[in-house]
């Protein structure tokens, strides 16, 4: 090997160290996926806070009902959707597989299920709005059913991508665990 200022070993140009400089691909993937999942969790927290604010304003009657409608029934169980996100964040520091699996299962239960129920609950009101042009609930002058369907669509995408990236992260963690067991 070459020293800092001295001669190099015969037959080498000094570039034979680069293979030791690379990070294993599953470690790179783990870091990238954790970053993506964190962005999705922060987006979910923003959606969650908006729904919480709407529920607080509606129940505490801080604004008239013609400005902020009372929450739909699906919004109450959706408040539990913060728990899977917290489990996901807790799984990252030590690559805790069990927390990540619990996060994925509870995302389906506490996040996706209320969103599906919400889409079904609001469907008759959406039909009435688009067939007859009648809306009875409003959020700052906009039809509440339109606003909440937009929330449902965005939240479903956030949780869907969160599940997808979590599965890929789980696979990369299993790859690194299997490689450690082989050694």
From TrEMBL:
<dbReference type="InterPro" id="IPR009787">
    <property type="entry name" value="Jagunal"/>
</dbReference>
<feature type="transmembrane region" description="Helical">
    <location>
        <begin position="99"/>
        <end position="118"/>
    </location>
</feature>
<dbReference type="GO" id="GO:0007029">
    <property type="term" value="P:endoplasmic reticulum organization"/>
</dbReference>
<protein>
    <recommendedName>
        <fullName>Protein jagunal homolog 1</fullName>
    </recommendedName>
</protein>
<dbReference type="GO" id="GO:0016192">
    <property type="term" value="P:vesicle-mediated transport"/>
</dbReference>
<dbReference type="GO" id="GO:0005789">
    <property type="term" value="C:endoplasmic reticulum membrane"/>
</dbReference>
<keyword id="KW-1133">Transmembrane helix</keyword>
<keyword id="KW-0812">Transmembrane</keyword>
<feature type="transmembrane region" description="Helical">
    <location>
        <begin position="40"/>
        <end position="62"/>
    </location>
</feature>
<dbReference type="GO" id="GO:0038158">
    <property type="term" value="P:granulocyte colony-stimulating factor signaling pathway"/>
</dbReference>
<comment type="similarity">
    <text>Belongs to the jagunal family.</text>
</comment>
<keyword id="KW-0256">Endoplasmic reticulum</keyword>
<dbReference type="Pfam" id="PF07086">
    <property type="entry name" value="Jagunal"/>
</dbReference>
<keyword id="KW-0472">Membrane</keyword>
<feature type="transmembrane region" description="Helical">
    <location>
        <begin position="138"/>
        <end position="158"/>
    </location>
</feature>
